[in-house]
Amino acid sequence: MRPVFPVVALLAALSCLSAGHAIADEPGRGWQLERDVDSPTYAFIEPAITDLDLDVDVMVLSCEPTERKSGLQLRLYPPEPGPFRSAQSSPVELAPDVVIDIDGRRYAARLFFADDFVVVANAADGAVPVLSASLVASLQNGRHFTMRLHTMEASPSSSATPAFDITADLQAGIGGAAIAVLRRCGTPNDSLASGPARAG
After folding, report:
1. Which of 18, 32, 65, 187 could form a disulfide with 133 if both were Cys (CB 3.0 to 4.6 A apart)?
2. pTM passes above 0.90
3. Total structural domains in the chain?
4. Which of 25-34, 55-64, 109-118 is the least confident region?
5. CA-to-CA distance for 72 and 170, rounded, in angstroms?
6. What is the CATH number of the domain that holds 161?
7. pLDDT tens track for 150-200
8. How many CA within 13 A on the CB side of residue 1?
9. How many angstroms separate the CA atoms of 122 and 17, rounded?
10. Which residues pair with 121 in a beta bridge?
11. In angstroms, rounded to a whole number, what is the distance separating the alpha carbons of residues 168 and 23?
């Protein structure tokens, strides 16, 4: 899967975000749009993680090409290319099924793993995982975002699956205005195509 925006440009923007200058002056500033372009193709936000054992650097909402036209993907990026890691630098294997809660409204979604990021989607256009129109609307209009992730356990008999809650204030920064700019991307109906949880 090839992104609309240049990967090098995104990585440079994320580097500025982590460094705390140019893109974002301080952590938790909220949604920020791609800068210095007439038509932004992505926005990003620094999430909060209630369990600091999982290291997620940034969430990116990006406009991606699909079979029909284009759609929006929500992506999770680790601080460094590769798998997500714990505070002890051990790789964390995440289960593909997640639940997103926005102001009490819940959406079942799945993770699709690429080499350097993870796509979160609850719909698909052909083989391309994207966000449904209703979830995009909730991202634009809602405030309290929570996404619960679970780990995959090596032992199938294990009943304990550690969970990580990623949270964000969707109205911080420029808030829903960032999502409104990106909603020109077409979004499919609320259906998730079956298939392996992989992206790229």
Report:
1. 187
2. no
3. 1
4. 25-34
5. 16
6. 2.60.40.1880
7. 888 644 444 556 678 889 999 998 999 999 999 877 555 555 544 434 454
8. 28
9. 27
10. 110
11. 18
